[in-house]
Write a structure and sequence with these properties.
By secondary structure, the protein is of the alpha/beta class. Helix content is 32%, strand content 19%. It has helices spanning 2-11, 14-21, 26-33, 43-56, 58-67, 71-79, and strands at 86-88, 99-100, 106-108, 112-113, 118-119, 124-126, 134-135, 140-141, 146-148, 152-153, 158-159, 164-165, 174-176, 181-184. Helix 2 (14-21) crosses helix 4 (43-56) and helix 4 crosses helix 5. Keywords: Membrane, Transmembrane, Transmembrane helix.
Length: 185
């Protein structure tokens, strides 16, 4: 029964599939769909999984609209709204494979976000004095952490729950606390 509901629900997202097919960010969107899986499916399977994600995951829909920003995407948002509690700044470039773990009340306003970054709920990436953070590849941002200002979070670094980062974090480090301190490299 669930599969029948998914099938008919997915038919509503055919305009999104068309938008995907003409998108410049097709590769990044595919990486987003399969961020938690090591899988390289056929094009037909990609479109099926894309429409399913758009149907059941409003956070993914928000990321999809960010990647396909244009007049047609803005038109589709009227009928298929994005998550109002998940905000991505229009000027924030995001690498493929962004893993969204229910990013309720999350704000992504960064200079750059790399590939295969994990984002949990209540995460804030924000600017201070006109400077925004840079998040490198493979970073994990856990619940309720904040990264503020022109800092750089190095590759594969982990920012712990509730951490407030105002200084650079090197590669492969773990930062926790308020203000954040490096506890492991």
């Amino acid at each position: 029964m669930r599969n029948i509901v998914y099938f008919f629900g997915q038919l509503l997202f055919i305009p999104h599939v068309i938008l995907f097919l003409f998108s410049k960010n097709k590769e990044a969107i595919v990486k987003d769909i399969y961020a938690r899986k090591n899988f390289n499916p056929s094009m037909a399977h990609q479109m099926f999984d894309l429409s399913k994600e758009l149907l059941i995951n409003k956070y993914f829909r928000t990321l999809f609209y960010h990647r396909t920003n244009g007049v047609f995407a803005k038109f589709l948002r009227v009928f298929y709204p994005k998550a109002s509690s998940f905000i991505i700044d229009v000027n924030t470039p995001i690498g493929g494979g962004l893993q969204l773990a229910h990013p309720y009340s999350t704000i992504l306003n960064a200079e750059k976000i790399g590939e295969h970054v994990y984002v949990n709920h209540l995460v804030t990436l924000g600017e201070k004095n006109g400077k925004k953070p840079t998040i490198e590849d493979g970073v994990e941002l856990h619940a309720h952490c904040m990264v503020i200002g022109g800092v750089t979070i190095g590759r594969n670094a982990k920012i712990g729950a509730g951490a407030v980062v105002v200084k650079d974090v090197p590669e492969n480090a773990i930062a926790v606390g308020n203000p954040a301190k490096i506890i492991q490299k």
